[in-house]
Amino acid sequence: MSRKLSLVIISLIWTASMILALPCLFYSTTITGKYNGVTWTGCILVWPDNKLVGSPYDLW
Questions:
Q1: What is the DSSP string of 16-53?
Q2: Which of 26, 28, 38, 49 is 20 to 30 A distant from 19 in Cα terms?
């Protein structure tokens, strides 16, 4: 395998990975809460149907 072909394959893998990660970029949000006096921050995915659990957009 030539160097040029290797770079093309690596570029294709990176591009595909970035495209597959786009839903996480678009639908991620942060939530904050308090537990035992400690404030915490979490990151969750909220799909367009606004269902946190059991959304048909999830890959079950």
A1: HHHHHHHHHHHHEEEEEEEETTEEEEEEEE--TT--SS
A2: 49
- The pLDDT assigned to 53 comes to 74
* Angle, CA 59 vertex, CA 31 and CA 17 arms, to 5°: 85
pTM above the 0.70 mark? Answer: no
Is the sign of the CA dihedral 13, 18, 23, 24 positive or negative? positive
Of 41, 21, 18, 20, which is closest to residue 29 (Cα–Cα)? 41
